[in-house]
Task: structure prediction
Amino acid sequence: MILHENYSLKKLNTFGINASAQYFAEFTNIGEVQEILSQQALFGMPKLILGGGSNLLFTKNFEGVILKNNLKGIELIKEDADFYFVKAAAGEVWHEFVMHCIVAGYAGLENLSLIPGCVGASPMQNIGAYGVEIKDSFYELEALLIADKTIHTFSNAACRFGYRESVFKHELKNQYIITSVTFKLRKQPVFNTSYGAIEKELEEMGVKELSIQAISQAVCNIRRSKLPNPAEIGNAGSFFKNPEILKVQYEHLKNKFPAIVGYDLENVNVKLAAGWLIEQCGWKGKTFGDAGVHKLQALVLINYGNAEGSEIMELSQNIMDSVKEKFEVELEREVNII
Ligand code: FAD
Ligand code: EPU
Result:
Protein backbone atom coordinates (compact mmCIF):
# COMPACT_ATOMS: atom_id res chain seq x y z
CA MET A 1 0.00 0.00 0.00
CA ILE A 2 1.36 3.40 -0.98
CA LEU A 3 0.97 6.50 1.15
CA HIS A 4 0.76 9.44 -1.26
CA GLU A 5 1.46 13.00 -0.20
CA ASN A 6 -0.34 16.09 -1.49
CA TYR A 7 -2.69 13.96 -3.60
CA SER A 8 -5.23 15.45 -6.02
CA LEU A 9 -8.87 14.65 -5.23
CA LYS A 10 -10.35 16.23 -8.37
CA LYS A 11 -11.19 12.90 -10.00
CA LEU A 12 -12.28 11.34 -6.71
CA ASN A 13 -15.25 13.60 -5.96
CA THR A 14 -18.26 13.84 -8.27
CA PHE A 15 -18.43 17.62 -7.80
CA GLY A 16 -15.03 17.67 -9.51
CA ILE A 17 -13.60 20.09 -6.94
CA ASN A 18 -9.89 20.63 -7.30
CA ALA A 19 -8.80 19.93 -3.71
CA SER A 20 -5.95 17.80 -2.43
CA ALA A 21 -5.26 15.50 0.49
CA GLN A 22 -2.17 15.91 2.65
CA TYR A 23 -1.92 12.09 2.71
CA PHE A 24 -3.86 9.55 0.66
CA ALA A 25 -3.93 5.75 0.60
CA GLU A 26 -6.18 3.08 -0.89
CA PHE A 27 -6.87 -0.18 0.88
CA THR A 28 -8.08 -3.46 -0.59
CA ASN A 29 -8.11 -5.55 2.58
CA ILE A 30 -8.63 -4.94 6.28
CA GLY A 31 -5.00 -5.76 7.14
CA GLU A 32 -3.87 -2.86 4.95
CA VAL A 33 -6.05 -0.33 6.68
CA GLN A 34 -5.04 -1.63 10.12
CA GLU A 35 -1.42 -1.25 9.03
CA ILE A 36 -1.85 2.35 7.94
CA LEU A 37 -3.74 3.25 11.10
CA SER A 38 -0.76 1.92 13.07
CA GLN A 39 1.72 4.35 11.50
CA GLN A 40 3.02 6.61 14.25
CA ALA A 41 3.40 9.59 11.91
CA LEU A 42 -0.35 9.57 11.24
CA PHE A 43 -1.53 9.34 14.87
CA GLY A 44 -3.91 12.10 15.84
CA MET A 45 -4.35 13.30 12.27
CA PRO A 46 -7.89 13.84 10.93
CA LYS A 47 -9.01 10.86 8.83
CA LEU A 48 -11.62 10.72 6.10
CA ILE A 49 -12.94 7.55 4.52
CA LEU A 50 -13.71 7.93 0.85
CA GLY A 51 -16.04 5.84 -1.25
CA GLY A 52 -17.22 7.19 -4.60
CA GLY A 53 -16.98 10.82 -3.43
CA SER A 54 -20.58 11.45 -4.53
CA ASN A 55 -21.90 12.96 -1.33
CA LEU A 56 -19.25 15.41 -0.26
CA LEU A 57 -18.05 18.89 -1.03
CA PHE A 58 -14.42 19.81 -0.45
CA THR A 59 -14.29 23.47 0.57
CA LYS A 60 -10.54 23.35 1.21
CA ASN A 61 -7.61 20.96 0.97
CA PHE A 62 -7.84 18.10 3.44
CA GLU A 63 -5.16 18.38 6.11
CA GLY A 64 -4.97 14.76 7.23
CA VAL A 65 -5.23 11.27 5.74
CA ILE A 66 -7.82 10.20 3.19
CA LEU A 67 -8.38 6.46 3.06
CA LYS A 68 -10.05 5.20 -0.11
CA ASN A 69 -12.06 2.06 0.47
CA ASN A 70 -11.50 -0.56 -2.23
CA LEU A 71 -12.72 -3.65 -0.34
CA LYS A 72 -14.45 -5.95 -2.84
CA GLY A 73 -16.64 -9.04 -2.74
CA ILE A 74 -20.31 -10.07 -2.72
CA GLU A 75 -21.40 -13.20 -0.92
CA LEU A 76 -24.69 -14.99 -0.20
CA ILE A 77 -24.03 -15.85 3.44
CA LYS A 78 -27.28 -17.62 4.35
CA GLU A 79 -30.92 -17.99 3.41
CA ASP A 80 -34.16 -18.99 5.06
CA ALA A 81 -37.62 -19.69 3.67
CA ASP A 82 -38.25 -16.03 2.81
CA PHE A 83 -34.94 -14.21 2.61
CA TYR A 84 -31.45 -14.20 1.16
CA PHE A 85 -28.78 -12.62 3.36
CA VAL A 86 -26.27 -10.99 1.04
CA LYS A 87 -23.04 -9.45 2.27
CA ALA A 88 -21.25 -6.85 0.15
CA ALA A 89 -17.83 -5.40 0.85
CA ALA A 90 -17.85 -1.64 1.38
CA GLY A 91 -15.87 -0.80 -1.76
CA GLU A 92 -18.35 -2.44 -4.13
CA VAL A 93 -19.99 0.09 -6.45
CA TRP A 94 -23.60 0.49 -5.25
CA HIS A 95 -25.34 0.26 -8.61
CA GLU A 96 -23.27 -2.79 -9.64
CA PHE A 97 -24.29 -4.46 -6.38
CA VAL A 98 -27.97 -3.63 -7.04
CA MET A 99 -27.63 -5.10 -10.55
CA HIS A 100 -26.01 -8.23 -9.11
CA CYS A 101 -29.00 -8.65 -6.78
CA ILE A 102 -31.51 -8.12 -9.58
CA VAL A 103 -29.86 -10.69 -11.83
CA ALA A 104 -29.72 -13.17 -8.93
CA GLY A 105 -33.41 -12.56 -8.07
CA TYR A 106 -32.77 -10.95 -4.67
CA ALA A 107 -35.56 -8.39 -4.21
CA GLY A 108 -35.64 -5.16 -2.24
CA LEU A 109 -33.02 -2.81 -3.69
CA GLU A 110 -34.48 -2.29 -7.19
CA ASN A 111 -35.92 1.16 -6.37
CA LEU A 112 -32.42 2.22 -5.34
CA SER A 113 -30.91 1.58 -8.77
CA LEU A 114 -28.40 4.05 -10.21
CA ILE A 115 -27.57 5.85 -6.97
CA PRO A 116 -23.87 6.72 -7.31
CA GLY A 117 -21.26 5.72 -4.74
CA CYS A 118 -20.17 2.63 -2.86
CA VAL A 119 -21.90 0.11 -0.62
CA GLY A 120 -19.94 1.29 2.43
CA ALA A 121 -21.42 4.77 2.32
CA SER A 122 -25.01 3.58 1.85
CA PRO A 123 -25.77 3.29 5.59
CA MET A 124 -24.12 6.64 6.37
CA GLN A 125 -27.19 8.55 5.26
CA ASN A 126 -29.58 5.59 4.81
CA ILE A 127 -29.73 6.23 1.07
CA GLY A 128 -33.21 6.46 -0.32
CA ALA A 129 -35.13 6.99 -3.52
CA TYR A 130 -38.51 6.28 -5.06
CA GLY A 131 -40.28 5.24 -1.86
CA VAL A 132 -37.53 2.98 -0.47
CA GLU A 133 -34.60 3.42 1.91
CA ILE A 134 -31.83 0.93 2.64
CA LYS A 135 -33.09 0.58 6.20
CA ASP A 136 -35.99 -1.41 4.70
CA SER A 137 -33.68 -4.26 3.72
CA PHE A 138 -30.58 -3.60 5.80
CA TYR A 139 -29.61 -6.49 8.08
CA GLU A 140 -26.27 -5.55 9.66
CA LEU A 141 -22.90 -4.00 8.96
CA GLU A 142 -19.35 -4.52 10.07
CA ALA A 143 -17.13 -1.59 10.88
CA LEU A 144 -13.61 -1.07 12.11
CA LEU A 145 -13.22 1.21 15.11
CA ILE A 146 -10.43 3.60 14.12
CA ALA A 147 -9.32 4.12 17.75
CA ASP A 148 -8.30 0.48 18.39
CA LYS A 149 -8.73 -1.22 14.98
CA THR A 150 -11.24 -3.78 16.26
CA ILE A 151 -14.22 -4.91 14.17
CA HIS A 152 -17.77 -4.33 15.45
CA THR A 153 -21.18 -5.41 14.16
CA PHE A 154 -24.14 -3.01 14.02
CA SER A 155 -27.72 -4.21 13.72
CA ASN A 156 -30.42 -2.23 11.93
CA ALA A 157 -31.61 -0.74 15.26
CA ALA A 158 -28.04 0.14 16.31
CA CYS A 159 -27.57 2.24 13.15
CA ARG A 160 -30.49 4.48 14.23
CA PHE A 161 -31.57 5.15 10.67
CA GLY A 162 -33.75 8.12 9.82
CA TYR A 163 -34.42 10.20 6.71
CA ARG A 164 -30.88 10.66 5.32
CA GLU A 165 -29.59 9.94 8.83
CA SER A 166 -27.72 7.33 10.85
CA VAL A 167 -25.70 7.16 14.03
CA PHE A 168 -22.56 7.45 11.86
CA LYS A 169 -23.43 11.06 11.00
CA HIS A 170 -23.84 11.95 14.67
CA GLU A 171 -22.54 10.28 17.86
CA LEU A 172 -20.20 7.99 15.93
CA LYS A 173 -19.11 10.49 13.30
CA ASN A 174 -15.58 9.81 11.96
CA GLN A 175 -15.05 6.96 14.41
CA TYR A 176 -15.65 3.89 12.24
CA ILE A 177 -14.71 2.55 8.85
CA ILE A 178 -17.63 0.54 7.48
CA THR A 179 -16.13 -2.58 5.92
CA SER A 180 -19.19 -4.55 4.78
CA VAL A 181 -22.98 -4.35 4.71
CA THR A 182 -25.35 -7.32 4.79
CA PHE A 183 -28.83 -7.01 3.28
CA LYS A 184 -31.87 -9.17 3.93
CA LEU A 185 -33.44 -9.53 0.51
CA ARG A 186 -36.74 -11.12 -0.37
CA LYS A 187 -37.30 -14.32 -2.30
CA GLN A 188 -40.81 -13.14 -3.19
CA PRO A 189 -40.62 -9.49 -4.21
CA VAL A 190 -42.90 -6.90 -2.65
CA PHE A 191 -43.11 -4.26 -5.38
CA ASN A 192 -43.06 -0.62 -4.35
CA THR A 193 -44.52 1.65 -7.00
CA SER A 194 -45.82 4.21 -4.49
CA TYR A 195 -43.78 6.97 -6.13
CA GLY A 196 -46.13 8.28 -8.83
CA ALA A 197 -43.48 8.67 -11.49
CA ILE A 198 -42.69 4.92 -11.42
CA GLU A 199 -46.25 3.89 -12.33
CA LYS A 200 -46.23 6.39 -15.18
CA GLU A 201 -42.85 5.23 -16.48
CA LEU A 202 -43.85 1.54 -16.30
CA GLU A 203 -46.91 2.39 -18.36
CA GLU A 204 -44.82 4.23 -20.94
CA MET A 205 -42.45 1.25 -21.05
CA GLY A 206 -45.46 -0.96 -21.82
CA VAL A 207 -44.80 -3.23 -18.84
CA LYS A 208 -47.67 -5.67 -18.35
CA GLU A 209 -46.23 -7.75 -15.53
CA LEU A 210 -44.26 -6.19 -12.68
CA SER A 211 -40.76 -7.48 -11.98
CA ILE A 212 -37.75 -6.20 -10.10
CA GLN A 213 -36.01 -5.77 -13.48
CA ALA A 214 -38.84 -3.57 -14.78
CA ILE A 215 -38.89 -1.40 -11.66
CA SER A 216 -35.14 -0.99 -11.80
CA GLN A 217 -35.34 0.02 -15.47
CA ALA A 218 -38.14 2.48 -14.75
CA VAL A 219 -36.15 4.06 -11.92
CA CYS A 220 -33.05 4.31 -14.13
CA ASN A 221 -35.09 5.99 -16.89
CA ILE A 222 -36.60 8.54 -14.50
CA ARG A 223 -33.26 9.30 -12.89
CA ARG A 224 -31.52 9.74 -16.26
CA SER A 225 -34.25 12.15 -17.36
CA LYS A 226 -33.76 14.63 -14.54
CA LEU A 227 -30.55 14.08 -12.63
CA PRO A 228 -27.26 15.22 -14.16
CA ASN A 229 -24.70 12.47 -14.78
CA PRO A 230 -21.70 13.30 -12.58
CA ALA A 231 -19.40 11.88 -15.27
CA GLU A 232 -20.52 14.83 -17.41
CA ILE A 233 -21.47 17.61 -14.96
CA GLY A 234 -20.05 17.98 -11.45
CA ASN A 235 -22.69 17.49 -8.74
CA ALA A 236 -23.49 15.48 -5.62
CA GLY A 237 -27.20 14.84 -6.11
CA SER A 238 -29.62 16.67 -3.81
CA PHE A 239 -27.60 19.32 -2.04
CA PHE A 240 -30.26 19.86 0.64
CA LYS A 241 -32.67 17.60 2.49
CA ASN A 242 -36.39 17.98 2.01
CA PRO A 243 -37.34 19.87 5.19
CA GLU A 244 -39.91 18.56 7.63
CA ILE A 245 -42.24 21.11 9.18
CA LEU A 246 -45.20 20.94 11.53
CA LYS A 247 -48.62 20.45 9.94
CA VAL A 248 -49.82 23.79 11.35
CA GLN A 249 -46.95 25.59 9.67
CA TYR A 250 -47.73 23.72 6.47
CA GLU A 251 -51.39 24.81 6.55
CA HIS A 252 -50.26 28.40 7.04
CA LEU A 253 -47.87 28.15 4.06
CA LYS A 254 -50.50 26.42 1.93
CA ASN A 255 -52.87 29.34 2.46
CA LYS A 256 -50.20 31.73 1.27
CA PHE A 257 -48.74 29.50 -1.49
CA PRO A 258 -51.48 27.10 -2.67
CA ALA A 259 -49.16 25.27 -5.10
CA ILE A 260 -46.63 24.31 -2.41
CA VAL A 261 -45.54 20.65 -2.63
CA GLY A 262 -45.70 18.69 0.64
CA TYR A 263 -46.11 15.06 1.68
CA ASP A 264 -47.88 14.01 4.87
CA LEU A 265 -45.69 11.97 7.18
CA GLU A 266 -46.96 9.45 9.73
CA ASN A 267 -46.16 11.81 12.60
CA VAL A 268 -47.31 15.41 12.96
CA ASN A 269 -45.02 16.65 10.22
CA VAL A 270 -45.16 17.39 6.53
CA LYS A 271 -42.13 16.96 4.28
CA LEU A 272 -41.76 19.81 1.80
CA ALA A 273 -40.19 19.45 -1.65
CA ALA A 274 -37.12 21.63 -1.23
CA GLY A 275 -36.75 21.71 -5.03
CA TRP A 276 -40.06 23.54 -5.27
CA LEU A 277 -39.08 26.09 -2.58
CA ILE A 278 -35.76 26.77 -4.31
CA GLU A 279 -37.38 27.05 -7.74
CA GLN A 280 -39.94 29.53 -6.38
CA CYS A 281 -37.10 31.69 -5.11
CA GLY A 282 -35.89 31.96 -8.70
CA TRP A 283 -32.72 29.89 -8.46
CA LYS A 284 -33.44 27.10 -10.94
CA GLY A 285 -31.00 27.14 -13.86
CA LYS A 286 -29.06 30.16 -12.51
CA THR A 287 -25.27 30.20 -12.85
CA PHE A 288 -22.65 32.23 -11.02
CA GLY A 289 -19.33 31.71 -12.75
CA ASP A 290 -18.93 27.92 -12.86
CA ALA A 291 -21.27 27.30 -9.92
CA GLY A 292 -24.97 26.90 -10.56
CA VAL A 293 -28.36 25.36 -9.89
CA HIS A 294 -29.41 22.54 -12.21
CA LYS A 295 -31.96 23.55 -14.86
CA LEU A 296 -34.12 20.43 -14.41
CA GLN A 297 -33.81 19.91 -10.63
CA ALA A 298 -33.38 22.91 -8.36
CA LEU A 299 -32.21 20.72 -5.47
CA VAL A 300 -29.01 19.88 -7.32
CA LEU A 301 -26.09 22.30 -7.29
CA ILE A 302 -23.60 22.10 -10.11
CA ASN A 303 -19.94 22.66 -10.83
CA TYR A 304 -19.82 23.45 -14.54
CA GLY A 305 -16.03 23.27 -14.62
CA ASN A 306 -13.70 25.03 -12.28
CA ALA A 307 -15.93 26.20 -9.43
CA GLU A 308 -14.28 26.08 -6.03
CA GLY A 309 -15.93 24.31 -3.13
CA SER A 310 -16.23 27.67 -1.37
CA GLU A 311 -18.24 29.08 -4.32
CA ILE A 312 -20.70 26.16 -4.18
CA MET A 313 -20.89 26.68 -0.43
CA GLU A 314 -21.60 30.41 -0.84
CA LEU A 315 -24.31 29.67 -3.40
CA SER A 316 -25.89 27.15 -1.02
CA GLN A 317 -25.89 29.72 1.77
CA ASN A 318 -27.57 32.31 -0.47
CA ILE A 319 -30.22 29.74 -1.41
CA MET A 320 -30.81 28.88 2.25
CA ASP A 321 -31.14 32.57 3.15
CA SER A 322 -33.65 33.27 0.40
CA VAL A 323 -35.80 30.21 1.21
CA LYS A 324 -35.78 31.28 4.85
CA GLU A 325 -36.79 34.80 3.93
CA LYS A 326 -39.64 33.81 1.58
CA PHE A 327 -41.05 30.75 3.36
CA GLU A 328 -39.59 30.89 6.88
CA VAL A 329 -38.29 27.39 6.30
CA GLU A 330 -34.73 26.34 7.21
CA LEU A 331 -33.01 24.17 4.64
CA GLU A 332 -30.36 21.74 5.84
CA ARG A 333 -27.47 20.58 3.68
CA GLU A 334 -27.53 16.89 2.81
CA VAL A 335 -24.05 16.80 1.29
CA ASN A 336 -21.13 16.33 3.73
CA ILE A 337 -19.11 19.53 3.86
CA ILE A 338 -15.40 18.88 4.29
P1 FAD B 1 -18.69 9.42 -0.31
O1 FAD B 1 -19.16 10.67 -0.95
O2 FAD B 1 -17.34 8.92 -0.67
O3 FAD B 1 -18.78 9.59 1.27
C1 FAD B 1 -19.93 10.14 1.88
C2 FAD B 1 -19.72 10.17 3.39
O4 FAD B 1 -19.64 8.85 3.91
C3 FAD B 1 -18.40 10.84 3.79
O5 FAD B 1 -18.61 11.49 5.04
C4 FAD B 1 -17.44 9.68 3.96
O6 FAD B 1 -16.39 9.95 4.85
C5 FAD B 1 -18.37 8.61 4.52
N1 FAD B 1 -17.98 7.24 4.14
C6 FAD B 1 -17.91 6.75 2.87
N2 FAD B 1 -17.59 5.45 2.91
C7 FAD B 1 -17.43 5.11 4.22
C8 FAD B 1 -17.07 3.92 4.91
N3 FAD B 1 -16.82 2.78 4.24
N4 FAD B 1 -17.00 3.96 6.24
C9 FAD B 1 -17.25 5.09 6.93
N5 FAD B 1 -17.59 6.26 6.33
C10 FAD B 1 -17.67 6.27 5.00
N6 FAD B 1 -28.36 9.73 -2.31
C11 FAD B 1 -29.55 9.20 -1.93
O7 FAD B 1 -29.75 8.84 -0.76
N7 FAD B 1 -30.56 9.04 -2.83
C12 FAD B 1 -30.43 9.41 -4.13
O8 FAD B 1 -31.36 9.25 -4.90
C13 FAD B 1 -29.19 9.96 -4.55
N8 FAD B 1 -29.02 10.36 -5.81
C14 FAD B 1 -27.84 10.91 -6.20
C15 FAD B 1 -27.69 11.31 -7.54
C16 FAD B 1 -26.50 11.86 -7.97
C17 FAD B 1 -26.37 12.29 -9.42
C18 FAD B 1 -25.42 12.00 -7.08
C19 FAD B 1 -24.10 12.55 -7.55
C20 FAD B 1 -25.56 11.61 -5.74
C21 FAD B 1 -26.77 11.07 -5.30
N9 FAD B 1 -26.97 10.67 -3.96
C22 FAD B 1 -28.16 10.11 -3.58
C23 FAD B 1 -25.90 10.88 -2.96
C24 FAD B 1 -24.84 9.75 -2.94
O9 FAD B 1 -24.88 8.99 -4.13
C25 FAD B 1 -25.04 8.81 -1.76
O10 FAD B 1 -25.01 9.52 -0.55
C26 FAD B 1 -23.98 7.72 -1.70
O11 FAD B 1 -24.29 6.76 -0.73
C27 FAD B 1 -22.58 8.26 -1.42
O12 FAD B 1 -21.67 7.19 -1.61
P2 FAD B 1 -20.13 7.46 -1.82
O13 FAD B 1 -19.45 6.14 -1.80
O14 FAD B 1 -19.90 8.29 -3.02
O15 FAD B 1 -19.78 8.27 -0.50
N1 EPU C 1 -39.76 20.10 -7.61
C1 EPU C 1 -39.93 21.35 -8.15
N2 EPU C 1 -38.86 21.93 -8.77
C2 EPU C 1 -37.66 21.33 -8.88
C3 EPU C 1 -37.48 20.04 -8.32
C4 EPU C 1 -38.55 19.45 -7.68
O1 EPU C 1 -41.00 21.91 -8.08
O2 EPU C 1 -36.75 21.92 -9.47
C5 EPU C 1 -40.91 19.46 -6.93
C6 EPU C 1 -41.86 18.75 -7.90
O3 EPU C 1 -43.16 18.94 -7.43
C7 EPU C 1 -41.51 17.29 -7.70
C8 EPU C 1 -41.10 17.25 -6.24
O4 EPU C 1 -40.45 18.51 -6.01
O5 EPU C 1 -42.61 16.48 -7.97
C9 EPU C 1 -40.17 16.12 -5.88
O6 EPU C 1 -39.08 16.12 -6.80
P1 EPU C 1 -38.29 14.76 -7.13
O7 EPU C 1 -39.23 13.66 -7.40
O8 EPU C 1 -37.27 15.08 -8.16
O9 EPU C 1 -37.61 14.40 -5.77
P2 EPU C 1 -36.85 15.28 -4.69
O10 EPU C 1 -37.71 15.38 -3.48
O11 EPU C 1 -36.36 16.56 -5.28
C10 EPU C 1 -35.79 13.25 -3.50
C11 EPU C 1 -34.45 12.84 -3.00
C12 EPU C 1 -33.62 12.28 -4.13
C13 EPU C 1 -34.32 11.07 -4.70
C14 EPU C 1 -35.70 11.50 -5.21
C15 EPU C 1 -36.52 10.32 -5.67
C16 EPU C 1 -33.95 14.17 -1.07
C17 EPU C 1 -33.17 15.31 -0.52
N3 EPU C 1 -33.80 13.95 -2.36
O12 EPU C 1 -35.60 14.34 -4.38
O13 EPU C 1 -32.37 11.89 -3.59
O14 EPU C 1 -33.58 10.50 -5.75
O15 EPU C 1 -36.43 12.13 -4.13
O16 EPU C 1 -36.94 9.58 -4.57
O17 EPU C 1 -34.67 13.51 -0.32
C18 EPU C 1 -30.14 12.61 -3.13
O18 EPU C 1 -30.36 12.36 -1.95
O19 EPU C 1 -29.04 13.02 -3.54
C19 EPU C 1 -31.21 12.42 -4.13
C20 EPU C 1 -31.06 12.70 -5.41
Q: What stands out?
A: The domain at 74-186 is CATH 3.30.465.10 (Uridine Diphospho-n-acetylenolpyruvylglucosamine Reductase; domain 3). The first helix runs from residue 30 to 37.
